[in-house]
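For reproducibility, we list the full input for the adenosine-5'-triphosphate complex.
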Amino acid sequence: MAKAVEIKNLRKEYGAKVAVNNISFAVEEDTLFALLGVNGAGKTTTIKMLTGLASPTSGDAIVLGHSIVKEKDKVKEIVNLSPQETSIAPNLTVRENLEFMAGIYGMDKEKIARRTQEMIEMFSLAEVEKCRAKTLSGGWQRKVSIAMALITEPKLLFLDEPTLGLDVLARRELWAVIKRLKTEVTVVLTTHYMEEVEALADAVAIMVNGEVKAIGTIDELLAQTGKQNLEEAFVEIAANA
Amino acid sequence: MKGIIFCKRTMKEILRDPLSYIFCLAFPLVMLVIMSVVNESIPKQANMTVFQIRNLAPGIAYFGLTFIMLFICIQVSKDRSTALIMRLHASPMKSKDFILGYTLSVIVLALLQLLITFAASFATAVAVGTKLPVTGVLLSIVCLLPSAIMFISVGMIFGTLIGEKAAPGICSIIITVVGMVGGVWMDVDNMKGVILSVSRVFPFYHGVKLARLALAGEYAEMGQPLLVVCAWMLGLYLLAIAVMNGKLKKDTY
Ligand SMILES: Nc1ncnc2c1ncn2[C@@H]1O[C@H](COP(=O)(O)OP(=O)(O)OP(=O)(O)O)[C@@H](O)[C@H]1O
Ligand SMILES: [Mg+2]
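The corresponding predicted structure, in tokenized form, follows.
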């Protein structure tokens, strides 16, 4: 299988703090890859580098064939992300938010209309499409924020804690959407929910203190640690690192 | 094209904030009425001409532009404080798109404000028994546009450099300075001395003068203030581009 992402010795320092410490791994195309780790492990920083938001201190990554160091502009066109913090234009309606995103990624009028409609259906946003984004509840805003990332038809989609703040039903609904995506889009997601990983992920990497401590399928991680479930395995790896 | 789309969203954000109407539209109108009333109570012998409608209208129109500066400053700093900016920075948008979008969105607001201010001035003129020349008013509006772009540039510069909390404060200082040395509320020309020399250093005095000359039809004298106003506009716009470019290039994440 082709690689959607190939990370080579990627490192990010903030002053004296090493947020990401020379990590290397690859993500296969059209799979869902879960990035796990305790708070401050470096997940968001990794995503920021892979989406062209932050420049690596050293190392590089090839995203869909393009270097994030040398071809940042190209990478920005073909990937998208749903940031950890809900990210929407507050005074715009849900529909306008979606149209706005499609627009700044250069889609024409027809395509904007079609994609907007598709997103409204996919995320069941019809009942709130005319509401100003700031008036929605946190969970609804979250869904809009994710739809805003997907509307631009990215080949690679980063979801930073996508189900944070969603209720159980909304979470399962979103899982279903993400599962359907997998056939066309490579998804890299971070989460603190192990059920989420079990429900969705094809491969998992566990980050500790800016380093990747374990990587593989869920079964491989279980075998490696000799544990019965992912949570136990995660604790084993994260605590003993 | 991305700039235009960004402009549309910025206009929506601004126009859907009720504060925009209060500051950008209501405030100039209120000042116009108050100052006209003040003018009526000034004795003729005092020979105070600043509050006469033909001087007052361009002055208030100019002063109103400082609120446009405040608005774009708040919008830029607010955008920087929200998570939306992260999304925009991850998108293929370039700094030229940001600048174009911000500038266009408030230029429209500035034009609207100028039209309303002068329309109200027309009515006020009629009410006090005089008339404003139509061509003079139109020319005055055109002459105020470079100043509008200059104020927008200043707004973008401070909005980019300082935070949401400090932005209104800095703008208030500039607004006060404009009021003092711009000759909007007092006849700086007749004060001579220090105030006049200080006034001439800043572009405000020249901008107000230009708008008044245009309205009065005194074209022969417009050359010099026009030159000063355009030079400031150009300089500050370029600075705004440089500042925003620098901010985008810098690793903020
Ligand atoms: N802009 C920054 N400036 C300085 N330090 C930073 C910056 N961004 C992140 N860090 C530090 O880098 C480390 C990794 O942060 P990061 O946000 O990547 O963690 P994370 O794995 O996403 O955590 P969480 O699960 O809490 O979201 C942390 O110690 C954080 O304090
Ligand atoms: Mg994070």
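Chain B has a mean pLDDT of 90. Residues 139 and 245 of chain B are 34 Å apart (CA to CA). Both points were considered when choosing residues for closer inspection.
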